[in-house]
Amino acid sequence: MSELKRVLYVEDEPDIRAVAELALGAVGGFELCTCESGEQAVREAVAFAPDLMILDVMMPGMDGPSTLRALRAMPEMAGVPAIFMTAKVQPEEVKQLLALGALEVIPKPFDPMTLAQRVMTVWERRDS
Amino acid sequence: MRAFFTRQLLSSMPILIVLGLLCGAWVSWNWYHLGEDLRTEMNTLAEQRGSLIRSALDTAGEQGQLMGELIAADPAVASILASAESKLRETAGQATLDEERAQLTRRIATLWSKLQEKVGLNQLHFYLAPEGVALLRAQAPDAYGDHNGWQRPMVRAVFADGVARHGVDLGTRASGVRGLVPITDETGRLLAVVDVGMDTEKLLSRLAADLGIGIALLADLPGRAPDIVVGDPFLTPVAEHLPARDSGWWEPSDDKRKFFVARSDMQLFSDAAAQESTEAVVSGSLIVWSDESQRYTTMRAQRLRTTYVSVVLFLLLAMALVWGVRNVRQYMGTRIRDANTMLRAERDLYAGGAVAVLVWHDDDQRKLVYVSPNVKSLFGYTDEHMTAADFEYAELVHPDDHERVARQIEESLQQRLTSWAMTYRILRADGAERWLYDFTRAEWRGGNELVGLRSYVIDQTEHIIMQRDVAAQRRRLDSLMTSAPAVIYSAGAHDRQITYISPNFNSLLGYRISDEMRDVRWWRERVHPDDLPGVKNLDWEDWNGDQHTGIYRFLHADGTWRWLEDRCRIISDADGVPRERVGSLADVTERVFLEQRFKHEQQRAMLALAGANLGLWEWQLESDEIMFNERWAEMLGYAQHEVTRSMRSSNKMVHPEDRPRVQQALIDHLKGNTPDYQCEYRMQHKAGHWVWILDRGRVVERDASGRAVRAGGTHLDITEQHEARELLRESEEKFRSLYEYAPIGIMLNRMDDGRFLEVNDAILMMTGYTEEALLSKKFWDLTPEEFAEEEAAYFEALLGCGVYGPYEKELIHADGSRLPVQVNGTLIVDRHGDAVVWTLVQDISEQRRMEQLKNQFVSTVSHELRTPLTSIKGALGLVSGGAFGALPEQVTQMINIAAKNSERLTLLINDLLDIEKIAAGNMRFDMREQSLEPLLRQALESNKGYADEYSVTLRLDNQAGDLLVNVDTDRFLQIMANLLSNAAKFSPAGGEVTVIVTTREGQVRVMVQDQGPGVPEHFRSQIFNRFTQADSSDTRYKGGTGLGLAITREIIEHMGGYVGLETRHPDADAEKVGARFFFDLPCRSAVHPRAGDQVLVVESRPDMAMRLAALLHDADYDVDVASDVDAAMACLKDCRYGTVVVSDALPDQDAASLRAFIHEVCGRAGVTVIGITATTTKGKLILAVDDMTLLTEAGPEAVKMKEASGTRTPREYDDGTSLLVCLRRAAEEKPS
């Protein structure tokens, strides 16, 4: 069982990005690479070599699912698990996102104090 | 002496006796002959008169019958009579029938007045079956209900046999020439008889007066006085003494006059006769008489004169014999050498007699050698005068007769005739004209040498004049005939030469009467070849033995064929040898055509029967034998011979289910319960399948006890129709169930007044009315007043395009409450041609309620959100504002995020509340007319900060000038803020947002142009709807609530404007495009010229000059117009004008020289020259300002007018606003 250390975080909204950075970095102690668009994530993912990706769903340009598809197309990234964060959490929508191969869908708004813990729980559940 | 006489007498006795006998014979022959001549003449005249009278009577009767048929053919009349008849029958004659009488009177009113005025028929009766009760007498409306008509044989006859007839009816009360026509109902049952006629006496009186004769009509009953006697008043009394009714002269004993009476047979109807005879028609007489005293007297005078002459001659001869027998004896046997001697003797002989003698000798150039002394009374000349050498007898002869006389003499001499006679006129010495009868003898020597001529002349004037009288009579007859309905003619029985034809022949057939017509060949050439054999042989239907009636075609002078009815009669002499044919010709073309048309119609009916594919059957009930036609069998797949010919067997082919029904229908009809037999049923086809047959028939014959003997009818294959009908019924049922059970209200209303025609259950449930209540109402009764106007507008549209809606309105519920509904409908024209409207009504009260709930919810939530938000904002504000001292950097960052987003939430809630207010109609608008430009500048200013955040600059592209708009300031700024912030948000950093203002026809368009990516095509259509962010595409726009544009639209529409997104121009540079939102608002120009400003318009096109002048005049300028440069220069001499507007229609050279002139002459005053391009589009003036130059003493200076006048190319045209703006600015720019 590998330890979760490096997280790639993609979010276009700067305010949420700022809050999430604090929650995952300062509170959770993960090593973060934050990207403001899917395109940036595709560019930086291989170099960063994350253990986990957390993707926003609604973004201008490449949205979350397209970004995931693009990343999974890279051999280095093919096995990296992903989590979606979205405000659209109707059961149908969640089902669709999970079908794309995501580990979990975390609904917005999230609690910044427990976000890291939740991510960790998901990560551990994956291993078991 | 005595002895001598005696001896002389005795010796000449034999000669005297012979002479006496001869003289007697001559006198009596003459006597008889003159009488007989007159009699023949009178007979002919009477015959003609009789023909005329018959023809007149016949025509009147025919007219009556024709009119009667016209009335009988009127279904309305038949139906009135049917009603009257049935009432009468049901009440056993007790019904008063006032209503039917009134109806009938109204129905025939027009015809009746025409009958009287135009046709002269003055009697119109209606007799009801069965006993001829008088229902109506049009000429005596108060006389009805009696049975008087029944006494009339003619009426009884028509009731008895149902055959129309016409004739003369001699009644006990009144006599008439009538046409009687039966009126039947559709089954052929006799309902009534209509009788149209004319008073016989009236008709005959007119004829009698015209002809100057008396007329009597009577049925041949022994000892009866004439039924009708008419004639000249002085003739009439005579009739009472009419002797035995045979033709001839008659002298009443107490009267000195001499009448000629002529009687002829005539068929009549007579009341009196009918009492003694069973025959309706009896033989009668037409008696015509006239006072012929004058003619008779003339004849008698002639007779006497002849007798007198004869006797005198005889006496003279006798005396001559007695005196001269000895001399005669002495000279007997010797040749008479000296003619003079003989002539002298003759002179004595004829002296004083009526006969004058003239003798010519041939050897003396045919000079008169002897003239008897009595010539004086004839010629007015003495015998000496006439025998004088220079006297020329020929000169006495009337010039008109001269040639004829000379020719006859010449011809007679050439033929060596020994005698001839001629009649001619001479002119007496006193100039009077006399007619002479001249008998001339020629004396020949040796057979061919003329010795002399001897003429015996006698004055014939009186006789000729008498003949003239006859001719005058004939002319009178002619003139009468001209107006008579038929042409009368007479012709020789053998040579067929026409001897008389009445002058109205000309109007009948267009030919002028001429001599060539006399020849039968002329007629033959004009009779239609097909009809000629019949005409030649009178091979026509004989009537009454000697009258022939034929109809044939005759060529009218205009080249068309006319049908003539020729009724003629052969008049034979006493020995029965045909002598003359007398007849009448009438144009019956119209009647024949009518008959032909009737035949044609009949034929067509037959054809239609065949064409309609009808099978025919006829059934003899007694033998149960049925006759079929080919089609009947063919319908069922059989050949004609394959079908058994009995009802019993054909009944087996009927579908068992239908059989009882068919039999019942048949029995009902056979029993007489139904007027017709009709049944639809199936029959088995030879191939096994069923064929639907429409069977219609009727009993055509019943025996005396009323039992059906024979029936006939038709079969029609209606399988297809039946199937179609089934299909229709099914679809109708489907529609019906849909209509009845649909949850949507369906109603049918009349278009013109909105009355409910049909409603379904759903609508009753919805509105709470009962069906009866609703059907008594109109659509409008359910429409609240405030919707009426809108509703009417929709109905207007309905007329135009056939459909309306869907739109929302309210209906008034039965309990008075309001029911919100959505309606839509369609206009259809029903089978009566009336416009009706089908409307679907959907109850949207639930929908409304949900909407209201949602709105309330949103509004409540928004309010509830605001309260905690206020605290959050307040708290965050305090912390971030440093109220608790400086914070660590990360805390500051977090606090700022919180503050910013709470701000955004506030905005969102405000927007939500705004849109809710607008939707609920709660937003207040404080509308004020104000200048547009300051508003725009303020909007740009207040959004500058926001734009700076995106590094975007805001720019007003052109000036709005003095445009005024009517808006609420705050709301206007709100929409500008929405548009500008959107534009800024989507612009790239360093980009520019431009605000552009244009005007067009009283509208200003404010456009906000950005340089962003533009709006995706698929999103354009819904961009103004609420909450339309790009959620669905998972591509989120930056910020915003998704309500901005929806609010913008609501606000702008409230202010009477329109907001939109300009479509991308396909040619536009893609890089620079961006989005261009715009809104339009009504505006008006605030340009007010300064009083006294004078403008000169230089425009060569008169219509354009007029339009420009009107434009400027409306803007309070003083305008003058010059059509060319010279005129303009003349106007400009005193430099009154502040501005000169020069149209592009002026040649460039002229424009240049004009500018130079203005500069030189008016430069000091500072004149502005504005160049424009003016044209029209759709009849409206549009123009563009090309340039504007201020001419001052210092020199020309182009005024900077870019923004206002739009000097970009291509030119920007407007309705003249830019020109007015220029004028205003020009005034401002001028040096004061």
Protein architecture, described:
The complex is a heterodimer of chains A (128) and B (1232). With 128 residues, chain A is an alpha/beta fold. Chain A has a single domain (6-127), classed as Response regulator (Rossmann fold, 3-Layer(aba) Sandwich), CATH 3.40.50. Helices cover 44% and strands 19% of the residues of chain A. Chain A has helices at residues 14-27, 38-48, 64-72, 91-99, 115-127; strands spanning 6-10, 31-35, 52-56, 82-86, 104-107. In chain A, strands 2-1-3-4-5 form a five-stranded parallel beta sheet, sandwiched between helices. Chain B is of the alpha+beta class and 1232 residues long. Chain B has eight domains: 34-295, 2-Layer Sandwich (Beta-Lactamase), CATH 3.30.450; 339-485, PAS domain (Beta-Lactamase), CATH 3.30.450.20; 500-596, Beta-Lactamase; 612-718, PAS domain (Beta-Lactamase); 742-843, PAS domain (Beta-Lactamase, 2-Layer Sandwich); 844-923, Helix Hairpins, CATH 1.10.287; 924-1084, Histidine kinase-like ATPase, C-terminal domain (Heat Shock Protein 90, 2-Layer Sandwich), CATH 3.30.565.10; 1087-1229, Rossmann fold (3-Layer(aba) Sandwich), CATH 3.40.50. In chain B, 43% of the residues lie in helices and 27% in strands. Chain B has 36 helices and 44 strands. In chain B, strands 1, 2, 3, 4, 5, 6, 7, 8, 9 and 10 form a ten-stranded mixed beta sheet that branches. In chain B, strands 32, 33, 34, 35, 36, 37 and 38 form a seven-stranded mixed beta sheet that branches. Chain B has a six-stranded antiparallel beta sheet with strand order 17-16-21-20-19-18. In chain B, α29 runs antiparallel to α31 and α33 (1125-1132) runs parallel beside α34 (1148-1162). Chain B starts with a helix and ends with a helix. Classes of the chains: A alpha/beta (128), B alpha+beta (1232). Chain A binds chain B through residues 12, 15, 18-19, 22, 26, 57-61, 63-65, and chain B through 890, 893-894, 897, 900-901, 1031, 1034-1038.
